[in-house]
Write a structure and sequence with these properties.
single chain; mainly alpha; 2 domains
């Protein structure tokens, strides 16, 4: 697991000149922002034992990843403020109320097809809305239902 995280960091972070560092940093349990773009901090994070990054034995699903970061947060603020990741705040889930009637029907049909095979929670709806908007605004010949298998 540790080697895979490092390879991801090295190939994506170094090989493509910091594209996707936010995602890859998150996979390595570091939050990359300007203050963290420091060679020593990245070196420390990359060399931490995997048990400090991913805790598969945790009974709480919220504490399985970013183990150190979340435990420091809990020690300072308590666990009542620790929430499951929801994607970017609000969008696109809250945007669906602004869809025109035709698009609402189309999105409803899409979610009904999805629900025949999978459960539709907030995260799944978020992803479906992203695909729906991508297809709508970029006019690509995207058949979303093909992604349901």
């Amino acid at each position: 697991m540790q080697a895979s995280l490092f390879t991801d960091y090295f190939v994506q972070g170094v090989g493509v000149h910091n594209i996707s560092n936010d995602i890859l940093g998150g996979e390595c349990s570091i939050e990359i922002r300007n203050v963290y773009l420091n060679k020593n901090i990245i070196k420390l994070a990359l060399n931490l034992p995997i048990k400090y990054k991913i805790n598969l034995k945790s009974k709480s699903s919220e504490l399985k990843t970013k183990h150190i970061l979340k435990n420091v947060f809990i020690n300072i603020f308590g666990d009542k403020l620790l929430f499951k990741k929801q994607g970017f705040s609000g969008f696109p889930n809250e945007s669906k109320k602004y869809l025109v009637k035709k698009d609402k029907k189309s999105f409803f049909r899409l979610t009904e097809k999805y629900k025949k095979r999978f459960s539709l929670d907030r995260a799944a709806e978020w992803k479906l809305l992203n695909l729906f908007y991508y297809k709508k605004f970029f006019k690509k010949k995207l058949i979303i239902e093909d992604t349901f298998h």
